[in-house]
Write a structure and sequence with these properties.
By secondary structure, the chain is mostly loops. The chain is built from two helices and six strands; from the N terminus they run βαββαβββ. The chain has helices spanning 8-11, 64-73; strands at residues 2-3, 29-30, 47-48, 88-89, 92-93, 105-106. The strands form three sheets. It has a two-stranded antiparallel sheet with strand order 1-6. A two-stranded antiparallel sheet has the order 2-3.
């Protein structure tokens, strides 16, 4: 199974290689150009926010418990960036939510999966 896990840089707040923009939630403000008569969209956002400079979350803003959990209990990437499926095209994610660092972990456990399946059908109802 191919999956996505955070890189060591991402665990430490550096998303400069991820291919997605990381926004600072503390900069969220109401969009003065928001039109409530239109649906919320990328062209009509209800709120705006600023990205972190250089796409890096400052160390002082990182939750130490989350960092510890990620370092101790999350697997490390074992595939090179760009080697998975659905990567990027010219630096842009080809799938919403996937970046340059997606599909960077291959979980190849020796497991046996048994699946019992069945099917049933009934004849059509006939009216006389």
């Amino acid at each position: 199974m191919t999956d996505t896990v955070p890189t060591s840089d991402e665990v430490n707040g550096d998303f400069s290689m991820s291919g997605v923009t990381i926004y600072d939630p503390n900069t969220t403000v109401t969009n003065p150009n928001y039109n409530p008569n239109l649906p919320v969209s990328a062209q009509n956002p209800q709120f705006t926010r600023q990205p972190f400079p250089n796409n890096k979350i400052p160390a002082g803003r990182m939750n130490s418990v989350a960092v510890t959990m990620l370092k101790q209990y999350t697997p490390q990437p074992n595939l090179m960036m760009g080697m998975g499926m659905g990567m990027t095209m010219m630096g842009q994610p080809t799938v919403v939510g996937s970046g340059n660092d997606s599909n960077n972990y291959l979980d190849a456990r020796n497991e046996i999966h048994n699946t019992d399946q069945g099917s049933a059908s009934r004849s059509p109802i006939q009216f006389e």
